[in-house]
Design brief:
globular, Rossmann fold, Dihydrodipicolinate Reductase, domain 2, alpha/beta, eight-stranded mixed β-sheet
């Protein structure tokens, strides 16, 4: 793709996230993109959104959109159960894809999508993990790569949010077959992805989950202890029951503690770097904050994606890099529902949890999450 030509973009799905995040991010890119079409099953919603944003192509069928418009990039904003088919359809049409989280409902679905990519130079499917792309995370990532802050030792990764009962009245929420899981899958995935993108792969996880206060098939609270391949240990908490909402990450390294507290996005002001007592004047810690202050945002990730498209390279948050957080979540569900510690290497196609986050047994999962049975046999 020529860096001087506009990228033709189509959006599939016109729900709240489309107008609230994706279309403003595209508008902020100016002449770099041209939003040519929008598709949704609801024709009235397509018309309203397209009128508001001046989008010419309007469709109620994604296949018709792809055939008529031949977009370079397709942004998938459908409910989670429709992600896999929409992404595969776009890849088959020759378009690159940027899909909302969660990437898929299972590792099996994720790997099926990857089988439709052209590893020789695209198109590729990537996923919305925008918190990786703020200047604070990028600066910390550089120091971790260079080792200037020492080894990571201890971490905290909390997504403590609040959703009242009415939130789950949307038919696809809180169901295994349509959302894939609870806050571990649909909410905490952002902070877990950021944590893993910084600290690297995990090796084993021990988790507990429960359906404590909301009427859902899935959990509304999960907690886990995660061991990383580096030897560091991270505690993870995901909740939809927490009135004072926060997203909080803490990394204790040999030479510094680095903290991030925000809610749905951050800038440099949300970070705090504290040097270890023996390194009060350490140059690496003094390197904070960056001169640039790029907030975490859909625009920041989309810019990175467009750069990768122009180079014909796999973008970040795709392939194995995009799979990492979904893999950890699979391990968490397997651990919580079976009462065992799960090793990353055990999540193979021979395992039931590779194919479904509840291991294919919704009844037993419900019994475990609501503590109505003393069994972990799934």
């Amino acid at each position: 793709m020529s860096p001087t030509s506009r990228t033709r973009v189509a959006v599939i799905g016109s729900g709240a996230i489309t107008g609230y995040r994706h279309l403003p991010a595209l508008a902020a890119l100016g002449d770099r993109v041209d939003v040519v079409a929008l598709a949704d099953l609801d024709a009235s919603r397509v018309a309203a959104t397209a009128d508001e944003w001046g989008i010419p192509g309007r469709y109620t069928d994604s296949g018709a959109l792809l055939g008529a418009e031949s977009p370079d990039l397709v942004i998938v904003c459908t409910p989670p159960a429709a992600h896999k088919d929409a992404v595969i359809e776009a890849l088959r049409a020759g378009a690159w894809v940027w899909c909302e989280k969660p990437p898929a409902l299972s590792l099996a679905e994720y790997d099926e999508v990857c089988s439709h990519e052209d590893a020789a130079g695209g198109p590729f499917a990537s996923y919305v993990f925008q918190h990786r792309f703020g200047s604070g995370a990028e600066r910390l990532r550089r120091h971790l790569a260079e080792g200037t802050l020492g080894r990571p030792l201890v971490g905290v990764c909390n997504t403590l949010w609040f959703r009242d009962p009415s939130y789950f009245e949307v038919p696809w929420r809180g169901r295994w077959d349509t959302e894939g899981g609870g806050p571990s899958m649909g909410h905490g995935i952002h902070q877990m992805d950021l944590m893993l993108s910084l600290l690297g792969d995990w090796s084993e996880v021990t988790a507990v989950m429960s359906t404590t206060a909301r009427t859902t098939e899935t959990e509304d609270v999960s907690m886990a202890i995660v061991r990383l391949e580096s030897g560091a240990t991270v505690s993870v908490a995901n909740s939809l029951l927490s009135p004072r909402q926060t997203s909080y990450l803490r990394f204790d390294l040999e030479h510094a503690t680095v903290e991030l507290e925000h809610l749905y996005g951050y800038d440099n002001g949300h970070w705090r770097w504290t040097p270890a007592p023996h390194l009060r004047d350490d140059a690496a810690v003094a390197d904070w904050p960056p001169v640039e202050d790029e907030p975490s945002s859909h625009k920041a990730q989309l810019t990175s994606l467009l750069d990768a498209m122009e180079r014909g390279e796999r973008p970040r948050a795709s392939g194995a890099d995009g799979r990492r957080s979904l893999e950890l979540i699979t391990g968490m569900y397997r651990s919580a529902l079976t009462g065992t510690t799960v090793r990353r290497r055990d999540l193979t196609p021979d395992d039931a949890f590779y194919h479904a986050m509840n291991g294919g047994d919704a009844a037993t999962a419900a019994a475990v999450l609501t503590r109505t049975e003393e069994t972990h046999d799934v």
